């Protein structure tokens, strides 16, 4: 009986505080009541002049969560001693950092050292999705910021992978195939630099011909885009490029996937059924996207006394 009492006490002294420290909706209700509205205002201001910020924030959020978890390690600048995640190949085209800086600066004036950079990324991404016509959903907050950012740890699923290869990265983070297909639906407002898919346009796998899985008309369109400018890019959804809807799934079912992984979602038996459901049911996609974003936002989060609340999202606090 005594041993059971000791175990009972240990459970409440060790496990209960951990449980209380988990993410929750309205985490800043007392410590910084205006937190979410301040982030929203910063996003609205940027969206008014740059609707592509939705795609940029979705990418930033994904690239952050898939390395060390959703800890804002992607925001940390390199130093003379270490090269941060920003300098890795997949992150060289990530943008939107200045928007996070702006939101953080505004929050520090009102609630110093209260709101984490990790939560700012998560909230800003949600707000940008809503502005683009996507679903509105509650974001659990309470994340803390990581103190490590190493470019050598960045190993993200690339656009040329097969469905099964890409899924391994998602599975490793506790996500399902349905989650993966849903999250890649964020490409409905996305863009890609031509070097990510140019191999599909002229010399696919050394054949000297375009990828046969790509619509011929799209090949012609993309050749025109990629032949102009110093760093050309194309919309991943050629239909409703700035609207957050299910058109992406309709496009890839019509062989109009710009990146290889996008097209394979529609062609691979592991994912084609999910694509078909989303293509024919916009509300289902909206619902599942909101759920999948919340789930992704919970990957390996730091809570309680772990990590820190950075004063400057680009710099780790001095000890």
From TrEMBL:
Presence of the UniProt keyword Signal in the record: yes
Signal peptide: 1-21
SUPFAM superfamilies: Heme-dependent peroxidases (SSF48113)
Subcellular location: Secreted
Residues bound to substrate: 157
Enzyme class: oxidoreductase
Protein known as: Peroxidase
Organism, scientific name: Gossypium hirsutum
Lineage: Eukaryota, Viridiplantae, Streptophyta, Embryophyta, Tracheophyta
